[in-house]
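User: Teach me something about this protein's shape.
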Amino acid sequence: MTLETQLQTEELEEMASGEYGEICMILGWKLSAYVYPSKLGRMFDGHTSFEPDPTLPKKEPDVAFVMAGRLTGRIRGSVPLAPDLAVEVVSPTDKQFEVEEKALDYIAIGVRLVWVISPVTKVVEVYRPGQDKPSIYGVNDELDGENVIPGFKLKVRDLFEVGY
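Assistant: First, the predicted structure itself:
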């Protein structure tokens, strides 16, 4: 295998699956449809960097929400605070311990609610400040925006069953 072929193969392996991308879109769409009409805050995709502390690495959750009033105007660089909700969708190349570390890092920087969505096991782990372990939600359960996105509810199955 040539070096060029090896690099192309590694690049393809690092790319997220279609399932991963679709779950991000479904969740982003459902959250945005709830958040924006009620002016509850602002939504961000996985290309957005959050930098609440310039001495720490930037964070880039797959989907993020910031409550109304915490950000004003346009943001031309990194968002200078932690989101209120950070969502990670586990991709085929993620290692479980790394995803767990990432969720705990979000809590440590002030994120109030973290959802880790696993397409393989079809569960969502919910991390909250002050909890030792995440709560586990299966396809028969419902996610709740709690006090971060009051009134938002989403059946876990809706993330995985797209109707085709």
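Now, about its shape. The beta strands are 41-45, 63-67, 85-89, 113-118, 123-127, 135-137, 142-144, 153-155. The CA atoms of residues 14 and 93 lie 6 Å apart. If you'd like, I can walk through any region in more detail.
User: That's plenty for now, thanks!
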